[in-house]
C-alpha cells in the first residue's frame, strides 16, 4: 500500500510553490494516498508484454482525400468585405508605418 505523509504533501506543495493551509493539507493527504494506491494497482496489472495504447478501438483515417476543387473568384470572396483594395481585404493598420 502506498503511503504519503502530511509532511511529504507539504514538501511537495512547497516545491510546487503552492501555498496550502493546514485544512487543505489534511484534505489532500488522503486524496494523494488514494491516487498513489490507484497507480500502484495499475502498475501491478500492466505487464511488459501488453502494448501501450492510446485508444481501445483501432482508428482509421476518416478524412477525404485532399483534392483541389472549385474556388471562389476574388469578386465572390470579397463581395461582402467592408473595404477592399484590388483583390485584397483592406484592414486598419495595427503596426504603424
From TrEMBL:
Keywords: ATP-binding, Ligase, Nucleotide-binding, Protein biosynthesis, Transferase
Start and end residues of each stretch annotated as Disordered: 48-86
Top-level taxon in the UniProt lineage: Bacteria
EC number of the protein: 6.3.5.-
Annotated catalysed reactions: L-glutamyl-tRNA(Gln) + L-glutamine + ATP + H2O = L-glutaminyl-tRNA(Gln) + L-glutamate + ADP + phosphate + H(+); L-aspartyl-tRNA(Asn) + L-glutamine + ATP + H2O = L-asparaginyl-tRNA(Asn) + L-glutamate + ADP + phosphate + 2 H(+)
Positions in coiled-coil regions: none
GO BP annotation list: glutaminyl-tRNAGln biosynthesis via transamidation; regulation of translational fidelity; translation
SUPFAM superfamilies: Glu-tRNAGln amidotransferase C subunit
Stored InterPro entries: Asp/Glu-ADT_sf_sub_c (IPR036113), GatC (IPR003837)
Class of this enzyme: ligase
One Gene Ontology MF term: transferase activity
Pfam family, one: GatC
Function in brief: Allows the formation of correctly charged Asn-tRNA(Asn) or Gln-tRNA(Gln) through the transamidation of misacylated Asp-tRNA(Asn) or Glu-tRNA(Gln) in organisms which lack either or both of asparaginyl-tRNA or glutaminyl-tRNA synthetases. The reaction takes place in the presence of glutamine and ATP through an activated phospho-Asp-tRNA(Asn) or phospho-Glu-tRNA(Gln).
Family affiliation: Belongs to the GatC family.
Record text on subunit structure and interactions: Heterotrimer of A, B and C subunits.
Protein's UniProt name: Aspartyl/glutamyl-tRNA(Asn/Gln) amidotransferase subunit C
Amino acid at each position: 500500500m502506498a503511503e504519503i505523509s502530511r509532511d511529504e504533501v507539504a514538501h511537495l506543495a512547497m516545491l510546487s510553490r503552492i501555498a496550502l493551509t493546514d485544512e487543505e493539507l489534511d484534505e489532500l493527504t488522503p486524496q494523494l494516498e488514494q491516487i498513489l494506491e490507484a497507480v500502484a494497482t495499475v502498475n501491478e496489472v500492466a505487464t511488459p508484454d501488453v502494448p501501450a495504447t492510446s485508444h481501445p478501438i483501432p482508428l482509421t483515417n476518416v478524412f477525404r482525400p485532399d483534392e483541389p476543387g472549385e474556388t471562389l473568384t476574388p469578386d465572390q470572396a470579397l463581395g461582402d468585405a467592408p473595404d477592399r483594395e484590388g483583390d485584397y481585404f483592406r484592414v486598419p493598420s495595427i503596426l504603424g508605418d
